[in-house]
Every structure is written in structure tokens, then in C-alpha cells.
């Protein structure tokens, strides 16, 4: 007799074979929590959140960042327990080159039908998912009942849907554009000493570049609690890249420049960086 676990895993394998990164999902649409290797967020991820930090851990513990197309991982012993507990299959739209406009109620659906170009549509529990070809920043509550799920987010797999996928329109991209926060001119950037010189565990330089770009964006988009945001961002970068020696002075300078553009002083940047290194034992 075929078990629900087998059906979910087979669905995930089929999606992965078509280039869609997938992961198991708990009841209530929540991803799986931290694994032992990432206890207390040592890797900089944010467990049980839809928007999670990058993590090289092979286990399904960091939401969208755990999504994979590797059948070996999907069939692995590490993931077996997750599939037994999983209530559904989720996928990373951005990793598949897609954007999901998640419409949560009838009013949101009516707005979409009047405003957005038609595309592939999938019925959801409370509304519809409109799927477009293209990647953009994810954001919740861009308007009443409307969420955007693309990069750094996951969506529940609800079936192939109906209709033809069309190109991501500018009107959808514009939904996540926020009013810019005031910035101050950056002062001279003083870069502290780099990280430790261990063996690099990252497969390609793209992993580091993506992490630095994401960190810059997180600092730049902060409109409050700037100092705390800078510290948390520094801590996340160092926890992921601080021990392998691939974090260069140029990368640190980019982070300091972003922080100082938000009003942080050079001294505060240095203190935050030093405190983050101390916290991680670097």
C-alpha cells in the first residue's frame, strides 16, 4: 500500500527532476526547525521562518534555503524523518525562476483579475496562486490579501494549475517597491582585519557574493533599529563565511559602507564587527 510519505516524496522527486527546488513542509505550512549543526542559528539562518538565511547544511532545516533538486538528498537518511512528519511539499519559486502572487481572499482575486495579466493559476486553501515566469524580491502584505513569493521564500505545492505561464510584469515588481529611507553620506570606511584562514567549504564564489549582496540589502532596507540590524547582519555573515578565509577586506568594506550610509559611525561599525567576531569565537 502506498503511504502518504511516499506520495509526498515522489511528488518532490518529480518536481526536482523538472528543475524545481523542493522541501518538506509541516502541518500548518511551517518549515522544519534547526538541525544539530545549526543549533542556536550558528549558521546565521532563521529557523521556522519563510525568509531564512543561506545554509550549507544538507538537512531540511532552513526553509527556502533547504530546497533542493538533488534526488540523492531527497532520498537521504537525513531527510527520511522529515518526509515521515511532512504534511505537504513546498518549493522555492525563485530557485525555479518563478514568482507566485499569493491571493488570500476573494477581494484579492478580484483585484488581480482586474489589474494583472492572466497567467497560470492554482487554487489555494483560501484563494489562488498566480504564477509568473521571472524572479523578484519576496514580500508579504504588499496590498490587502496579497503576498509575493519568489526569491528567499517558499510556497506550498498545490498542483500544476491551469493556464499558460506568462512573463513577470512590471506591475507585479512595483508592488514591493518601498519609499526609500533617508540616508546619510558614508564617511571614510576603516576595514578591520579579515577572518580566519580555514578550509573553504563553499562550492563557488557565487555563494559568497550572494551572501554579501543579501547582507547589503538587509542593511540598506532597514528603516528602524539600524544598529541592531547591522550587528545581526555582521553576525550572520561571519557565522557563514568568517572561518574559511574567503571573506576579504573588500567584502567587509561593502558591509561597512552600507552601514555608514544608514547613519552608523565608523566606530559603531568596528565595534559591531568586533562583537560579532567575539560572540562566534573568531
UniProtKB/TrEMBL annotation:
Phylogenetic classification of the source organism: Bacteria, Bacillati, Actinomycetota, Actinomycetes, Kitasatosporales
The organism of origin for this protein: Streptomyces sp. R11
Protein known as: Bifunctional DNA primase/polymerase
Domain of life of the organism encoding this protein: Bacteria
Residue ranges of domain DNA primase/polymerase bifunctional N-terminal in the record: 12-187
Matches recorded under Pfam families: Prim-Pol
Amino acid at each position: 500500500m502506498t503511504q502518504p510519505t511516499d506520495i509526498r516524496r515522489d511528488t518532490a522527486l518529480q518536481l526536482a527532476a523538472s528543475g524545481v527546488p523542493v522541501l518538506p513542509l509541516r502541518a500548518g505550512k511551517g518549515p522544519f526547525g534547526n538541525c544539530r549543526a545549526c543549533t542556536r542559528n550558528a549558521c546565521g539562518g532563521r529557523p521556522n521562518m519563510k525568509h531564512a538565511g543561506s545554509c550549507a547544511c544538507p538537512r531540511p532545516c532552513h526553509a527556502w534555503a533547504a530546497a533542493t533538486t538533488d534526488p540523492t538528498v531527497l532520498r537521504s537518511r537525513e531527510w527520511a524523518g522529515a518526509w515521515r512528519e511532512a504534511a505537504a511539499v513546498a518549493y522555492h519559486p525563485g530557485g525555479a525562476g518563478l514568482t507566485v502572487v499569493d491571493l488570500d481572499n476573494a477581494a484579492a482575486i478580484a483585484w488581480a483579475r482586474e489589474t494583472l495579466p492572466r497567467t497560470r493559476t492554482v487554487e489555494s486553501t483560501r484563494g489562488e496562486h498566480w504564477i509568473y515566469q521571472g524572479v523578484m524580491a519576496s514580500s508579504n502584505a504588499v496590498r490587502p490579501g496579497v503576498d509575493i513569493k519568489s526569491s528567499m521564500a517558499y510556497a506550498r505545492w498545490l498542483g500544476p494549475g491551469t493556464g499558460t505561464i506568462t512573463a513577470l510584469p512590471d506591475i507585479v515588481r512595483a508592488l514591493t517597491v518601498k519609499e526609500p529611507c533617508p540616508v546619510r553620506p558614508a564617511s571614510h570606511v576603516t576595514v578591520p582585519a579579515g577572518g580566519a584562514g580555514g578550509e573553504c567549504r563553499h562550492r563557488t564564489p557565487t555563494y559568497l557574493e550572494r551572501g554579501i549582496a543579501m547582507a547589503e540589502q538587509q542593511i540598506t532596507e532597514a528603516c528602524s533599529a539600524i544598529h541592531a540590524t547591522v550587528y545581526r547582519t555582521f553576525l550572520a555573515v561571519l557565522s557563514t563565511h568568517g572561518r574559511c578565509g574567503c571573506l576579504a577586506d573588500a567584502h567587509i568594506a561593502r558591509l561597512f559602507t552600507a552601514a555608514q550610509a544608514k547613519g552608523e559611525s565608523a566606530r559603531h561599525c568596528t565595534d559591531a564587527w568586533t562583537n560579532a567576531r567575539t560572540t562566534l569565537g573568531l
